[in-house]
Write a structure and sequence with these properties.
The structure is a single chain. The protein is of the alpha/beta class. It has two domains: about 160 residues, Bordetella uptake gene, domain 1 (D-Maltodextrin-Binding Protein, domain 2, 3-Layer(aba) Sandwich); about 100 residues, D-Maltodextrin-Binding Protein, domain 2, CATH 3.40.190. Helix content is about 45%, strand content about 20%. The protein is built from eleven helices and ten strands. Strands 1, 2, 3, 4, 5, 6, 7, 8, 9 and 10 form a ten-stranded mixed beta sheet that branches. The longest helix has 24 residues. It is globular, with a radius of gyration of 22 Å. Belongs to the UPF0065 (bug) family. This is Tripartite tricarboxylate transporter family receptor. Pfam families: TctC. It comes from Pigmentiphaga humi.
């Protein structure tokens, strides 16, 4: 039986612990926060992470540093965050590759996209696009499909993320041709080989392709959207090109390790919500081809669940075996 004195002592210790925890949470962030990107510098995730880091520094008066941990189709970075301390000093700029496509593409993932993370906020969505090098003799989507069908599997595509692989295989299957996939650690090296002629086409995030189009090294044939992008208004949608019922979009959000203190989650969500409505931030997202779409942590958690099921279905329909 616990004496009154012992009970009082335990209660005091518990109250002190809660007070210390509350003080620690209130003090967050008191040292640099790492924002992990599972892809190399120059990728869409990296570009957005640096925009987020810069604005969080101004909003929360603390240091936010981007940390690139590329490789293994995003699994290295995702697993690193999943195993990180639950103190708010390791965050993750994640998306449909690590959280939606990977679980169906790999037998041994190294992390659980739902159980191992704390959803904080969805930042934006953006369309995929199909591109060939500018020197290619393919000028339209119809010409591309015709040549791909005649190639009998010799067309090679580059992919720098699992979701890009799914998009490529699903599109090829829908149009009745086979293609050879060549994996890369990210979109920048994949684009380098496309420009150099080592592969024939790529399906990638539109924002990454735009600078290459302006530089005269790539030609975008179509966007995976129901309306044209203001970034490349001259490029038709897949619906305009005669492909029906095919609308793919990527998403990007911020999360932390599972068990992140609710106070920190809320503080981050509130700060990012304020950031995402800043005119200069929304304008920057638009120039990147992204549509800002912030939501609450609970809404983001539900969205992640829905996307996990949706991309899993696309992987199965594309007939991609798990590695």
């Amino acid at each position: 039986m616990i004496s009154r004195r012992t009970f009082s002592l335990l209660a005091a210790v518990g109250a002190a612990s809660l007070a210390l925890s509350a003080q620690a949470t209130e003090a967050w962030p008191s040292r640099p926060v790492s924002i992990v990107v599972a892809y190399p510098p120059g990728s869409t995730m990296d570009i957005l992470a640096r925009l987020v880091a810069q604005n969080l520094q101004e909003e929360l008066k603390a240091s936010f540093l981007v940390e690139n941990r590329p490789g293994a189709s995003g699994r290295i970075g995702a697993e690193y965050v999943a195993r990180a301390a639950k103190d708010g000093y390791t965050l993750f700029i994640s998306g449909n590759s690590t959280h939606s496509a990977n679980p169906s593409l790999f037998k041994k993932l190294g992390y659980d996209p739902v159980k191992d993370f704390t959803p904080i906020i969805r930042i934006a969505t953006m369309p995929y696009a199909l591109a060939v090098r500018e020197k290619s003799n393919i000028k339209t989507l119809a010409e591309f499909v015709k040549q791909a069908q005649q190639s009998k599997g010799r067309f090679a595509y580059a992919y720098g993320s699992p979701s890009a692989q799914v998009a490529s295989v699903a599109f090829a299957a829908s149009e009745g041709f086979d293609a050879l996939g060549v994996p890369y650690k990210g979109q920048p090296p994949a684009l380098t080989d496309l420009i150099g002629g080592q592969v024939d086409f790529i399906m990638a995030d539109l924002p990454v392709l735009v600078p290459y189009v302006h530089a005269g090294t790539l030609r975008v044939l179509t966007v995976f959207s129901d309306k044209r992008s203001p970034l490349l208004p001259q490029v038709p949608t897949m619906l305009e090109g005669g492909v029906k019922g095919y609308d793919l979009a990527a998403w990007i959000g911020v999360s932390g390790p599972a068990g992140l203190p609710p106070e920190i989650t809320s503080k981050l969500s509130d700060a990012l919500s304020r950031i995402l409505v800043k005119p200069e931030v929304t304008a920057r997202l638009q120039t990147l081809g992204m549509q800002h779409s912030p939501n609450t942590p609970n809404q983001f958690a539900k969205y992640v669940d829905e996307q996990l099921l949706s991309w899993g279905q696309r992987v199965r329909e594309a007939g991609i075996p798990a590695e």
